[in-house]
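@channel anyone free to eyeball this complex?
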Amino acid sequence: MSERIFNFSAGPAVMPVSVLEEAQGALLDFAGTGIGIAEHSHRGGPFEGVMKQVEADCRALAEIPDDYALLFLQGGASTQFFQVPANLLPADGTADYILTGSWSEKALKEAKLYGKTHVAATTAEGNYRRIPRADEVRYSASPVYAHFTSNNTIFGTQWPSEPPAPPAAAFLACDASSDIFSRPLDVKRYGLIYAGAQKNLGPAGVTLVIIRRDLVERRARELPTMLRYDTHAKDGSLYNTPPTLSIYLMGLVLKWIRGQGGLAGMETLNRRKAETIYQALEACGGFYQCHAGEGSRSLMNVTFRTPSPELDARFVKESEQAGMSGLKGHRSVGGMRASVYNAFPLGGSEALASFLKDFAKRNG
Ligand code: PMP
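replying in thread with the prediction:
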């Protein structure tokens, strides 16, 4: 068998080895049933048991109260960009969006198809290097909801905590695709949280939606059955065939997160992993520049560059030769990006830290 290398991919991303090993066996024979997990009917007892456990583990990990429904949907976070306003934004209502990167821009674009929108804050100037300060967030008079992106995968910025609460009856909606369950969160502050699983929760194919139950019932317009949140809430995400294998793997990842000390333990580990890299970047006497400003730096995606695009290219090439994959930055930022999601091992951050110092010494 070939050896595993350090995978810094922004998503789909590294998964815990213990999860992959357990899944190997379950693919052939799930829990002694003689049938592999991907071959079980979603209506049968074995998969129903998986589904129940996954939901219970999500609730326990993130302390999700009973007045929130959990939905396991398909179509990725990109589908939530329009499913949120389609269900919740009436044509004469206003939705506020805080723009901190390309993903928030894409979410805003879809909301415009359904109702009025207002940009409550943006840090586009300077290519999204930072998260807005609380006093820069200007909500409209009575928005239906305020939407933000908790971690900006491409730019490597992350909200240290939620933006200010929106006015009166408005709820907070969050795209948490790239930092869900990477640290404790207070679900009660939100009306809705959504995330594709493929960074912190498992493989691609399932999108977790945590939604307050009163919002499930609030239908802004007639929609096809599959697009309605209440369709999936009523049937426990089993209205149609769910992505069974992805949900099963998400369950194993949740169990693994519990073993790391839950979300608080996860945060401690994630902080160590990210700080190991940030400290190495700072230690190189200005050779590297971080894209994200101090106070906005992500614990999930570390974005940085060397003094020149030529050296960036050499960095990517040599890091690959040293057993580190996926460090090339997104084209809209350039440079490098190290994605160190939940399952990324501390040893990988340490390997990158030494490589950073060595590379700077040789090329500085
Ligand atoms: N939001 C964020 C913050 C993301 O990082 C991504 C994917 N990289 C998306 C949305 C889009 O997710 P999907 O591919 O699951 O539609």
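from a first look: The longest strand covers residues 116-122.
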